[in-house]
Amino acid sequence: MATSEKQAMVVGIDDSEHSKYALEWTLDHFFAPFASNPPFKLFVVHAKPTASSAVGLAGPGAADVLPYVDADLRKIAARVVEKAKELCLGKSVNDAVVEVVEGDARNVLCEAVEKHHASMLVVGSHGYGAIKRAVLGSVSDYCAHHAHCSVMIVKRPTIKH
């Protein structure tokens, strides 16, 4: 199957263990078993929040903080990208495209699906409870309802003590 015929798969990542697990799971199930000819072209997308959305405050002094917050978000994004590339290379997936897009993860991932004409979007699940999910809004819930493709939510197995 030539690359041009391959369907695109977008995996959304952030700096959480849940997202790392989702990427590893995807590589193990959709890429590693196919060696050099996986069925999908892989796009790994990290949504970098804007400094103003991360700070969430306005007023005197807010503008002074933003450059520091942005520098921090850039460092996090660089680390997330580095880790994703390492995971892909570790599973011999050498042609994955890893990108950082600024914005809210919900919109960034749905837009990435459109841009790459993806037939599948993979996201991790943070496993928030109902209240936290209601307050924060779940990226996976949003994508499941708004992405124009199939959405797979990868959940980390819970460790029973």
Briefly say what this structure is.
One of its GO terms (molecular function) is hydrolase activity. The protein is α/β, with parallel strands linked by helices.
Topology (SSEs and partners):
Layout (H helix, E strand, L loop, with lengths): L6 E7 L3 H15 L8 E9 L2 H5 L6 H29 L6 E6 L2 H12 L1 E7 L5 H7 L2 H8 L3 E5 L7
Parallel strand pairs: 1-2, 1-4, 2-3, 4-5
Helix pairs in contact: 1-3, 4-6
How would you portray this structure in words?
InterPro entries: Rossmann-like_a/b/a_fold (IPR014729), Universal_stress_UspA (IPR006015), UspA (IPR006016). Keywords: Hydrolase. Residues 9-155 form the UspA domain. GO terms for molecular function: hydrolase activity. The chain has a single domain (8-53, 63-154), classed as Rossmann fold (3-Layer(aba) Sandwich). A five-stranded parallel beta sheet has the order 3-2-1-4-5, sandwiched between helices. Helices cover 47% and strands 21% of the residues. The protein is built from six helices and five strands, in the order E-H-E-H-H-E-H-E-H-H-E. The model has no long low-confidence stretch (mean pLDDT 89). With 161 residues, it is an alpha/beta fold.
Output the CATH class name. Answer: Alpha Beta
Sum up the overall morphology in one term. globular
Unreliable stretches (pLDDT < 50, length at least 5) are none
Main sheet: strands, sense, barrel: 5 strands, parallel
Number of helices: 6
CATH topology name, in short, is Rossmann fold
Mean of all residue-level pLDDT scores: 89
Number of domains: 1
CATH homologous superfamily placement? HUPs
Give the strand content: 15-25%
The secondary-structure class comes to: alpha/beta
* Count of distinct strands: 5
* Distance separating the two termini: 45 Å
Q: Name the CATH architecture.
A: 3-Layer(aba) Sandwich
- Rg from C-alpha positions? 17 Å
Secondary-structure element pattern, one letter each: EHEHHEHEHHE
- Helix fraction, binned, reads 40-55%
* Lateral strand order in the biggest sheet: 3-2-1-4-5
Pfam families: Usp (PF00582)
Protein name: Adenine nucleotide alpha hydrolases-like superfamily protein
Organism: Theobroma cacao
GO molecular function, one term: hydrolase activity
